[in-house]
Amino acid sequence: MPQILVIEDDKEQRVALIDLFTKLGHVTTEAWDGSNAAHKADQFTFDMIVANLELTKITMMHFLKALRLGKTNRLTPVILYHKSFDEEVVSSLSRFGRVQFITSPIVEAVLTEKVALTIKAAVAASQEHANKKKAYTFSKTSLEQCAKSPVEAVEAEFFRFYPAMLQQMDAATVDFGIWLKGSKDLLEYVGTRFTPEQNKKHIEDIVGVLQRMKGALELYVRKADKQKLYDHVQRLRISRLADKNLRDSQREVSDIFHKLTMCASHFSSGDVDMEMVTGAEQLAMFTLQKLSEKGDLISVLIDLFKKDPQMYDFVALVTITAVALGRKMGLQDVVLKKLSLACFFHDVGMALLNMPLIVDRQMTAEEHALYRDHPSAGTDQMNLLEAKGLTFPEEVYMVMMQHHEKFNGNGFPNQRKGRLSRENPTGIHLLASIVAVADRFALYLLNESNAGAIEQNRIVNAIFRLTGEYDPAVLKAFKEVFATGRDSTVSWEPT
User: How far apart are alpha carbons 477 and 481 in whole angstroms?
Assistant: First the structure.
């Protein structure tokens, strides 16, 4: 029987809500202000909280923070009612669990339906969580054979890698350990202590668990084995490029993998959010692996890189920077994969127009006009490929066309302004805004690396001086990933 906490300082309204929930068969606990509610949340566990936004003695924000420290899970559904909701308040409160809003005076039928649906969703989520816990099962015999390391060693000794890479491994030639994160120990489940047949079976077990858990299982290698992991996967990926049309271009494809592989390690971990960057690196490499199976698309990329040697570094930097920003902003993996794909192709128009990546002088009027046309030229090329049967997510086109648009409307080619939404159909797609910042950051890094030392603060400040040109949310994520506020340098060098 669901337990509901009702928080209302008006006694008449509180009694009415209690009567309603009792009639619906719920067990109800009452609280008359935030302090009283926080106290009861420390004593009991609730399946739902229904509260008036206007509480006495303690604000709703503080109350919800208090709940996160009590017995009530921070994801416990919360329904807030009030006569009107300020947009800023809604945005802030939405960060705390499953917060929903209804306008008072409360309509009984509306509240009844919302409570029923919310509890049903919460039960389903709880069951899914329980199923995920059950899914983390391997044979007792194989687990007994595992080496163990305390989970506290992760931060100092281990590197977490993107789970999809596991499916690209050859169990017969794995010469390093792959570790699973348990509750108390890291378990070396694949490695030299096992036979190739055992490793193959263990990899199949892990892939099965990952599929059931939707990728929630954490996989690690020792930091000393990180390069072995990359070399192993890269070697197998390249060997699988069986299309005869790609045989002459394997070196170029290998170079692309190499640039991505090395890119994240060229940032100083003291100045950069390395969790975001290394996660971006893994996802970008997975996207490129899928891309490498399509000969026509790889040929387009290779044509781009052959026009300008710095394009290898540039595309790797843009892709990893953009995906890191997207991860910081909370975008889902399915969206990040589209973002990484768009990054690879966003400047294809530069190659088609024979434009150099970095022009170390002021462009002429004719050159500038040509440069402004590269988003359209790239999109035209992708349309030709699509006519041949190669389909692309809509987001790829959005990024190609809009990554030089500016938030203040002064960009090109279509002078879009603000964030794309239903209310602003002529705005800029969020992914394009992310690539815009990543594109500028990568160009600054390449320019400064050509000149010598790279000063992080100078680059970050230069980008922030352009506030108004970029989506504020993207700039915030950029500063959180690549700026620390200290005087420091980025230890990135062209590979």
Answer: 6
User: Are residue 310 and residue 449 in the same domain, yes or no?
Assistant: yes
Looking at the DSSP bridge assignments, the partners of residue 148 are: 187
Residue with tokens 């339906």: 113
- The backbone torsions φ and ψ at residue 420, rounded to the nearest 5 degrees and listed phi first, read -65, 130
Q: Are 446 and 314 in contact (CB under 8 A)?
A: yes
Rounded to 5°, the CA angle 440-395-337 comes to 80
Return the pLDDT at 495.
42
Beta-carbon count within 10 A of 311 CB: 21
Give the tokens for residue 495. Answer: 């590979």
Give me the residues of the chain with pLDDT under 70, please. Answer: 42-43, 55-75, 87-89, 91-97, 125-137, 162, 164-165, 168, 212-216, 234-274, 289, 292-297, 303-309, 354, 356-361, 387-388, 449-457, 483-495
Tell me, yes or no, whether 235 lies in a domain: no
Tell whether 310 is covered by a domain.
yes
Domain finish residue from 102, 117, 135: 135
Secondary structure (3-state) at 60: helix
Query: Residue 387: in which H helix or E strand, if any?
Result: helix 374-387
Same domain, 23 and 145: no
Considering the domain architecture, whether residues 246 and 219 belong to the same structural domain is answered as no
Angle between helices 311-328 and 295-307 (to 10 degrees): 120
* Burial (Cβ within 10 Å: 0-12, 13-18, ≥19) of residue 224: exposed
How do strand 78-82 and strand 48-52 relate by DSSP bridges? parallel
Tell me which amino acid residue 52 is: N
- Nearest CA among 279, 282, 290 for reference residue 260: 282
- Helix/strand/coil for 220: strand
Instruction: Tell me which H or E stretch contains 27.
Output: strand 27-31
Phi and psi torsions of 81, nearest 5°:
-125, 145
Residues paired with residue 82 on neighbouring β-strands, in sequence order: 103
Q: Provide φ and ψ at 253, rounded to 5°.
A: -65, -40
Asked if 399 and 346 count as a contact pair (C-beta separation under 8 A), the reply is yes
Domain of residue 50, CATH code: 3.40.50.2300
Do 97 and 10 lie in a common domain?
A: yes
The range of the structural domain enclosing residue 93 comes to: 3-135
- Check whether residue 313 and residue 406 sit in a common domain: yes
Q: What token pair was written down for 9? A: 């300082």
* Partner residues linked to 14 by β-bridges: none
pLDDT in tens, 351-365: 777 676 666 567 777
44 with 78, same domain? yes
391: number of Cβ within 10 Å: 7
- Tell me how far apart the alpha carbons of residues 403 and 333 are, in angstroms, rounded to a whole number: 21
117 in the same domain as 53: yes
Token code pair at residue 260:
């991505």
35 plus 158 within the same structural domain? no
149 belongs to a structural domain: yes
> 228 in a domain, yes or no?
no
